[in-house]
Amino acid sequence: MKITAVDSAGDLFLVEEMFTQELLLDLSIDNIDWQVQGQQENFPRGVIDANSCPSSHSFYRMAEYLNGAYIETYFTKFFERDTLLHVPRIWYDQPGFHMKEHIDGDENPRPDVALQIYLGQNQGQSGTTFYQMDGSERYNFDYNFNTGYLMQNNKSQLHGVKPNSSAHNRLSLYVGMDFLN
pTM for this structure? Predict the structure, then answer.
């Protein structure tokens, strides 16, 4: 795993090679009971808790890895704060998916940290774009296999997803984290 700050603010990072190739062997989306979550019913997307997949599936094995002691210890050291990872979710975004600029949790930013890793090959899908509060672009995370972002959430972490004009799906793992102290 390689984590690199995108600028001097120290609250937004490019993550590369998050998972070993062994954890990425079965990324099939067939026979997954995709759910609609909350206010996102009007979006062409589905979600599933990664740990609810069959234990032989990569989604489950990635969740097991993320919920292991090594990763929790890693992020506790990285942020210099006790860190608790939530249940990882897999997002399946269909062509046409987009999300306007927002701050996770709005006035009360939650979770404290978010990690999103893209699980498909780039075929024109949109990644995630972060913006300055004046609307100018801060950093664009391209949709590239086994890469993504780590965001320490705050009231200026404005981000969104540009419309996916490709004919390809967007698959990613998302996990929130909270600081315990």
Answer: 0.93
